[in-house]
Amino acid sequence: MLAxxxxxxxxxxxxxxVYRPESELLSHxxxxxxxxxxxxxxxxxxxxxxxxxxxxxPTGAPETWPFGL
Length: 69
What we know:
12% strand; alpha+beta
């Protein structure tokens, strides 16, 4: 059953780690249980790239456009 499989510990790769091949498994991965860590699981069968906003700032847009900071 899917619920049982999602309760099994799996290896999850950390984001933003410094790559060191000699210690990759110990320093880049940690044990995670998806059913405890996440509220939902979503699978996208098909995706497509997003389109960029363009380099120009629209008339009247704030100087911080498109981030709004």
